[in-house]
């Protein structure tokens, strides 16, 4: 429940209407307005929410929050103004989070945030009502909307925290006030925006700096940069990884399984996803759950039934007989190398010819060509054929060739459409095809075409 007084406390001024109103929900998309909602008009890249005030009122909005002058004075609707509606929205979410008072677990890292979130929520749901971030709600807009969907029955909120610059995670922590902070890793994602891996670590470390003294930091002990973040934490720290020098560690037993060790306790864990990197994500989630008083039996059961967000190494069938490993949510050097390793393992396991379809990896800065070549070299070691999409990905092809991949096994295309047409004409039924890249590169369209809309 959000009141008109809450909106004013968050930094808005009541321009028109009753100060006694109570709002059922808070939305930023007029199409999602339900009777009694507060509609927040945000200027966006594609559309300005101020253009949809009448639509919001027609759908039953009881309040409007604007940052631009408007002549709208609808009957029985409160009008609020603020210099910065996004900041006011964040402040409002922070007030509401304090009112509901759940335990908040914040998760950040260059890779693995979403899968770790899914794993952790699945474990915690065994004993408590859990709210988790949906989709890509991990920024200054998405995180407030997640917190504003809290209900009194929610005892724990598991939220992703993304960033595109220094200070952004600190702002998210001001809103969410996490008591638990998880850092999965620090990689090269966003190098173009932050300039160096050190700055990326500094940005991720804002989560750990923001934890209260009674909180807990959950850190990758195998990543020296992340392990060093322990010095930023005033409370408890737990390390996870593949070495026994960590508080929680794993012995992999297969592409989807491992034995987890915690002190003298051990548990056999089977995951619904593939790869060492996902075992690492499961370790991060498990360590967070252990810090909250869960045990390894809870961890094993929760991980086994976890529902992983779509487009992340999802194995799919096709009308052509080939199998597709669909990983078209995003791409970074570390996640691309991990995906290639999974492709190699599954290809051997299922006795299938392996094909990797890789696209431009974005926002890597001056090191981008070399990082693409490194991924290409990994492809030469692990897979039978490489298809690249985009100008930057041509460096992937160069890396593969330099590492000894035969030229007839390397194919480069400028667009996803060209790559799609090549694959549809050349793939054989015995192929296992990794399609890896961001939606900005339209790699999801390649996977859709290869699949023929039939999924395993």
Brief summary of the model shown:
With 456 residues, the protein is α/β, with parallel strands linked by helices. It has 16 helices and 22 strands.
Describe this protein's structure.
By secondary structure, this protein is of the alpha/beta class. The model has no long low-confidence stretch (mean pLDDT 93). It has helices at 4-9, 53-58, 85-100, 113-124, 142-147, 168-176, 191-194, 197-209, 224-227, 276-291, 296-304, 333-350, 368-382, 394-402, 416-426, 443-451, and strands at residues 2-3, 13-16, 22-23, 26-27, 38-40, 63-66, 78-81, 103-108, 130-132, 156-160, 180-183, 216-220, 236-241, 248-254, 257-262, 265-270, 314-316, 323-327, 353-359, 385-389, 410-413, 431-436. It has 16 helices and 22 strands.
Question: What is the element layout, followed by pairings?
Answer:
Layout: E1 2-3, H1 4-9, E2 13-16, E3 22-23, E4 26-27, E5 38-40, H2 53-58, E6 63-66, E7 78-81, H3 85-100, E8 103-108, H4 113-124, E9 130-132, H5 142-147, E10 156-160, H6 168-176, E11 180-183, H7 191-194, H8 197-209, E12 216-220, H9 224-227, E13 236-241, E14 248-254, E15 257-262, E16 265-270, H10 276-291, H11 296-304, E17 314-316, E18 323-327, H12 333-350, E19 353-359, H13 368-382, E20 385-389, H14 394-402, E21 410-413, H15 416-426, E22 431-436, H16 443-451
Parallel strand pairs: 4-5, 5-6, 6-7, 8-10, 8-11, 9-10, 11-12, 12-13, 13-14, 18-22, 19-20, 19-22, 20-21
Antiparallel strand pairs: 1-3, 2-7, 14-15, 15-16, 17-18
Helix pairs in contact: 3-6, 4-10, 4-11, 6-8, 12-13, 13-14, 15-16
